[in-house]
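The data are passed on as follows:
___
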Amino acid sequence: MADANRPVTLAAIAGAHGVRGEVRLKLFGEGAESLRAFSALNAGERTLTLKSVRPANQGAVASFAEVTDRSAAEALRGTLLTVPRSALPPLGEGEYYHHDLIGLPCVSTDGGAIGTIVAVENFGAGDILEIEKPDRKRFMVPMTAKAVPAWDADGVTIAAAFVE
């Protein structure tokens, strides 16, 4: 099971929007609507109270009670907005958060160790697992909902299996 206190990054502040302290957000979740479930977000060593959030081009625009002008908003550029893992909604049977996959071992279909999952990326065509081998070299494999990632590398079929 995932560490309940491990921070999960939901967004990053990309910069100021307007003169009243609103910020542009780069989202790492399911959209602006998903942020509304949280009244407060951790921003480094401080907590920001979410007043409003709305969808915008390639992200969202948000306002926080503690950020009242453009200068304060600009000062937050690059700040990651996180919540503890325990604050996320519960999952249904067979569901998982991408965040929970990071750090899990990856094994071949014959049970041999391949490496560790270090990232889950999405470049527009679907989720991709980034796996780091013991020699610290990394490779990526596509992940689909219906199939375990598999491919042929040096004549060996490799599949990702998630085990704790």
Observations:
- The two ends are 8 Å apart (CA to CA).
- Residues 54 and 61 are 5 Å apart (CA to CA).
